[in-house]
Amino acid sequence: MNPKLADKLPYKILCRCSVTRNQLSVQWHGAADDIPASLKDQIDAYWRREIEETPKRDYIFNGDLCRLRNWQAASGRLTLELGYTNYKQLLYSNHLHETAGQATEVAFCARALGISAIVVTADKQFVLMRRSQAVGEGPGRLDVLGGHVEPVAHLVNGVPDPFFAMQEELLEEVNLRPGQMVCIGLVETVVTRKPEMVFACNTREDARNLLAAAKDHGCPEVAELIALKNEHDILQSFVATQMSNFSPSAAGCVGLYLKYLEETNVRE
User: CATH fold of 3-264, please?
Assistant: First the structure.
């Protein structure tokens, strides 16, 4: 990719890999990081003003999330160092970064670890979603299916498990139990510095059945599902023409997947 073009993208790729569940290691730091009282007051005030005192209070709540403290990809393995954060801190962190702009260093960054699924159906369709208005991040934007790693709900053998979290999110959003899942890397949004763990998933369902089942399932976070042919050039062209309609993290996920297709010679 042209370096000048890469500089204009809303995301950057942190690492590329092809990691199964057995090749992932998670180091879990369960205690919350210390936050100065003055910063905590600012976070609470923002939450009250933007959520509790608006209609959003009916569908957005402050859930516990996992913070990506560090990561390492080496020798065919991926190691994640995770700590604690929450949705209130995430929204305030996004607000700080979006207000300050890319060139300004801000005092706080939640770095809540998102999880995103590149879902390919049995009839070789690539599945996107349009986010509903009932979400705190990117309402109405094009996105891939996913969510966040949660420190309690996604705990396996004493540590948060991103693979289990991804399975649970797909079940919750579109009632889908995926087949094979492989982590293909990490991306990060440029402005908010929010990391995303990206999975390539397949399903035995064809696109028509999956879209119909998701509509019947009626997840409030999903406005609609969209199916595109899982071909490199088609996906690349769609992202290029629709970039302004994508959430930055989703653009990063698809960008990473295109490189995954190139490297594995899976051009349908």
Answer: Nucleoside Triphosphate Pyrophosphohydrolase (3.90.79)
Reported residue count of the chain is 268
Q: Where are the domains of the chain?
A: 3-264
Q: What are phi and psi of 259, to 5 degrees?
A: -65, -35
Cα angle vertex 140, ends 63, 122, to 5°? 90
Per-residue model confidence as pLDDT tens digits over 132-149: 988 888 889 999 999 999
Residue 217: CB atoms within 10 Å: 14
127 in Cβ contact with 229 (< 8 Å)? no
Q: What is the DSSP string of 140-195?
A: T-EE-EEEE--TTTTEETTEE-HHHHHHHHHHHHH----S-EEEEEEEEETTT--E
> Exposure string (b/e) for 220-229, b if CB count within 10 Å is 16 or more?
ebbbebebbe
Helix 248-264 and helix 232-242, axial crossing angle in degrees, nearest 10: 160
Question: Residue 63 — φ and ψ, nearest 5°?
Answer: -85, 155
Using alpha carbons only, how large is the chain's radius of gyration in Å?
18
Q: Closest by alpha carbon to 209, among 192, 197, 222, 227?
A: 227
Residue 5: other Cβ atoms inside 10 A: 8
Q: What is the pTM of this model?
A: 0.93
